[in-house]
Specification:
The chain is built from six helices and seven strands; from the N terminus they run ααβααββαββαββ. It is an alpha+beta fold and 210 residues long. Helix 3 crosses helix 5.
Amino acid sequence: MGASAPQKDRDGLCFFGQISAAISHDLKNVLAIINEDAGLLQDFSLMAAQGMELDPPRLVKLAEKIQGQVKRGDGIIKNMNRFAHSVDLPVCDVNFRELTGLVISLLTRIASRKCVTVTLKEGEQVNGKGDPFTIQMLIAKALEYSMDSAGRDGELDIELSSADGVNVLTISGLSEAIPEEQLAELESISVKAGGKPAYVPQDNILIFKF
């Protein structure tokens, strides 16, 4: 085993833990809302048992709210499942648009906490070969640092394109310069992901080529 292997494993484990913690917080929030609505439904039932007339439209609205949270929870679990299984995959065919969309979904809580809007612009399908887990780690770390650069109420746009066999991911909307140590970290992960980063400070954009 090479000297860099344990560090690589630890970096991946830290990333997996960070995402898992964010998912658990989202699911806990979903369950709390459902529990609150279930309590309200119980209150209505008790009032009806005491002879109070029920308000059908209000009950329908409450049921729809619960169904919405169940649907939200189902989406979170599906994303968690896709993310968890990416650890098992070797270098393989990668749909970069799909992978980027998944990372954005996984970072929803972090983006909300930092008050930053992240938008994946529509465009062509971008496919290539790579290690899905490491590519996700690279995109997630790049987004996290870009959110810090964009600042509160910032708006990040992500574009994907492909030309002459090179896939390009561009993050725009940065404000402050990304610190050197963060750029060095992105460079290190990029090497593992088979990519190459470039920061263009005059345009406030971060570019990754695969």
